[in-house]
Hints:
Layout: E1 7-11, H1 19-27, H2 30-35, E2 37-41, H3 44-54, E3 60-63, E4 76-80, H4 97-115, E5 121-124, H5 129-134, H6 142-149, E6 156-161, E7 164-168, H7 175-181, H8 184-200, E8 207-211, H9 226-240, E9 244-249, H10 251-257, E10 265-268, H11 271-281, E11 287-291, E12 296-300, H12 317-345
Parallel strand pairs: 1-2, 1-5, 2-4, 3-4, 5-12, 7-10, 8-9, 8-10
Antiparallel strand pairs: 6-7, 6-11, 11-12
Amino acid sequence: MSAHKPVTAITLGDPAGIGPEIVLKTILSPKIFEVCDPFVIGHRDSLEQAARVLKIHDLKFNMIDDPSQALYRRGIIDLMQTDVCNDAVIEYGKIQKDAALRAYSYLEKSVELGMAGKIDAVSTSPINKAALKLANVPYIGHTEIYQALTNSPYALTMFNVHKLRVFFVSRHVSLRQACDLANHDRILEFLKNIDTEFKKLGIEHPTIDVAALNPHVGEGGMFGTEEITDIAPAVKDAQALGIRARGPLSADAVFAMNLDGHSDCILSMYHDQGHIGCKTLDFEKAVTITLGLPFMRSSVDHGTAFDLAGKGIAQGNSMIEATRVAALYAQMQLDHKQKVESTLAV
């Protein structure tokens, strides 16, 4: 095991949404301190406002400029403030430029810390796409931001819910466009990248079940030919590289087949194909993990919920789970890295 628990940054998200409330519930949860050393990147006024909403009294802050200054004690919030739009008055439930600029600054700070090797993981609270656009942030979401700011060649989105792990050949595109993206080269590239990332977690020979695109795997071409022309050839080419991929497998069965975790993951062909299975299994524990970055990154799979913000009714379970899972995967990476280094030192 590694000498320390993963140092995990928790970003506050858009302060006009439920982010401050669910982050506050997370950083005060004993479950988090069991698996990591957590601190928050955000603004103190947003957390204090959330505390008033949640009727939490006597917050104790330890303001830090570096993770090394954190105390990592439950009941004390180690907080790193970015000093962006400090004088802004943020209103709950509204798209605001200053709120987006604050939220983006938290992500930039987490990347700075991650690239410097000062954190092992980051758990991100929701941001608002419309607010980012208003603030002229040139990215559509978290994954794009982290891939660009870390100069990573790829950023793989993986859903984690219980023993189910699901990747996506395409995500935020139309269903019509998703069919075009389910092509040989893209599928093969995903299989190679998934294999690489799982090996970094210490999973030496990861098994990947590949979902079909069409009903009943296309029924020999009667219901679509993508399985014949693209998906099966990509799986075969991956197998020739030593990757333990199999498929295409009927999408209406592959998720149920994997509830016991008998395969390491599923590669789904498009956004809803994978999301429906995961969210039906357990909506609150469906966590987004981003692999391929220099550090582990996770997120809740819900938005800023402007309609709930400031009412004290937002549930923190998803954020707690996202942070816990990020720490667990970061621990896997740390343990594997230590094992490799120990082997090389012999």
